[in-house]
Amino acid sequence: MSEPVVDVHSHVFPHLTRAQGRVLADADEPWLRVAADGTGMMMSGDAEYRPVHAGLWDPERRLADMDAAGVDAQAVSSTPLMFGYAADPARAADWCELVNERILAFCADAPDRLLPLCQVPLQDPVLACEVASRAAAAGHRGVHIGNHVGDRDLADPGITAFLAHCAGIGLPVLAHPWDMLGADRMRGHMLPWLSGMPAETQLSILGLMLSGAFERIPRTLRLCFCHGGGSFAFLLGRADNAWHNRDIVRADSPLPPSGYLDRFSVDSAVFDPRALRLLVDVMGPERVLLGTDYPFPLGEREPGSTIRACPGLDDAARARLLGGNARDFLAPAEAPAGLVASEGGAL
């Protein structure tokens, strides 16, 4: 039986009303406006944020799209607009509980194909641990987090403690760039997505490495960065060179950046077979997972097409990238990492 095709990076925005959005905040609250013709608009208070289609909130439409694209399973994570990291922690915790319940409901009719990831109030790492533990007990297969909370990056001691907690309960972590740096210089043309997202992810990965945070996080943590790890793979040589030649770069990390490549994975959302070839060369074929960013228009329109077109991959490596790696990454904590897919590619 062939490996299933498993997409580790897809988003959902449950059909939450404006009143429900106010669980989180009294202004700029996230909610979903759905018109009579079936079109949708992600909203931030009164402001229109992004037009969307039914695959974002309708599981039947999503499953039909997956069938048409040959995708066996998706990890389903909230849209970053929903994170709520600027809110009061107690309200954010209540919001996360509501969102997590809705994500479970979204996935309930196809539990072998739609794999729910929870979100947490990361601005309060203690609360985040509590919410993550409850979500894992309720059936969530992982946790989806932003790559920073204000000026606190993933190497922040509180967030590092949260990552260690996830390692301890066997909950995989999917890290997504958001709230991009330099927004005042990236007006128009979706430059925050085109330039800011890769920079955010590069910053987070290097921060974990050079701060020594990876030395404090259990090796059992399953951590995956979206969007191909941003600019990290292309700039790894630059970072290694700096570590070897400047003591201020290596002051807190006993290993050069390339010494930590076995501590995390990345998705395949780079959209160019040549870029994916570099990514596989840097990370290894066991640490690149199919990610499409479904259902957004900047995602991969033909899931897995970049992997299938990537030069130099043998059949075994291509199968790992298309599904085997994501299947292992998302395996329930009580199951071995080499979990065997059931008939039809289910997880």
UniProtKB/TrEMBL annotation:
Q: What class of enzyme is it?
A: lyase
Superkingdom, natural source: Bacteria
Amidohydrolase-related domain span: 6-330
Is Transmembrane helix included in the keywords of this UniProt record?
no
Q: Name one GO biological process term.
A: secondary metabolic process
GO CC annotation, single: cytosol
Pathway listed for it is:
Secondary metabolite metabolism; quinolate metabolism
Q: Name one GO molecular function term.
A: metal ion binding
Q: Which InterPro entries match?
A: ACMSD (IPR032465), Amidohydro-rel (IPR006680), Metal_Hydrolase (IPR032466)
Assigned keywords, A-Z: Decarboxylase, Hydrolase, Lyase, Metal-binding, Zinc
Q: What is its EC number?
A: 4.1.1.45
Subunit-level organization:
Monomer.
Family as reported in the entry's similarity comment: Belongs to the metallo-dependent hydrolases superfamily. ACMSD family.
Its recorded name reads: 2-amino-3-carboxymuconate-6-semialdehyde decarboxylase
Q: Lineage of the native species?
A: Bacteria, Bacillati, Actinomycetota, Actinomycetes, Streptosporangiales
